[in-house]
Amino acid sequence: MIVERRIDLKCHPSKPSATVRAVQVLVRRPTGAELQMTFRLDGDISRISIPSPGMPRIATDLWRHTCFEAFISAEGRSAYHEFNFAPSGEWAVYAFAGYRDGGPLTNEKLRPHIAVRSTDNGLDLDSLVRLDGLSAIHPRASLRIGLSAVIEAVDGLSYWALRHPSDKPDFHDAEGFALLLELPDPKG
């Protein structure tokens, strides 16, 4: 059995974009220790800055350009992890004990699988995260998830998320971790 949700992200009103029409995410949680996410960007790709494909590697400041993100916490806990997925294949993982209280992790075992497909009017980024690399709790817990994207286009950066709790874009605000993803029922 797989728990699956399709979600539309909302653009932060302070940074609207005429170039990006929509950002949608399909989230899948199979019974194993994986979390699968497909981010779909719909827009005028010729006017959006997409990092060129390269070798998968840890990188910093990915959020300064087109990048997709997932914030994952076990339900009821203030600690969370942030994953950054760039269309280039670059990635980053951060661990936080609470709101912005933490920093980057450099463990290659946390490397997400990233695959990208693009067309004239869109881009899909598939990502796969191993939950058992985060902690022994994550594969068995209900998860509180924040999904977001930073899109760099000719009309500037736009910020997309499930929920924007404040007047400034802030993906770390736990109020934005708006998706509760239960553990799949193994009996179906």
Please provide a written account of the structure:
This protein has 188 residues and is an all-beta fold. It is built from no helices and 13 strands. Strands 1, 2, 3, 4, 5, 6, 7, 8, 9, 10, 11, 12 and 13 form a 13-stranded mixed beta sheet that branches. A hairpin with a 3-residue loop joins strand 2 and strand 3. It starts with a strand and ends in a 7-residue tail after the last strand.
Number of E-type strands? 13
Beta-strand fraction estimate: over 45%
**Approximate helicity band:** under 10%
Which regions contain 5 or more consecutive residues with pLDDT less than 50? none
How far apart are the termini? 5 Å
Please summarize the sheet with the most strands: 13 strands, mixed
Total count of helical runs of at least 4 residues: 0
Outline:
The chain has 188 residues and is an all-beta fold. The chain has strands at residues 2-11, 20-30, 34-43, 57-58, 67-74, 80-85, 90-98, 101-105, 113-119, 122-130, 143-153, 156-161, 179-181.
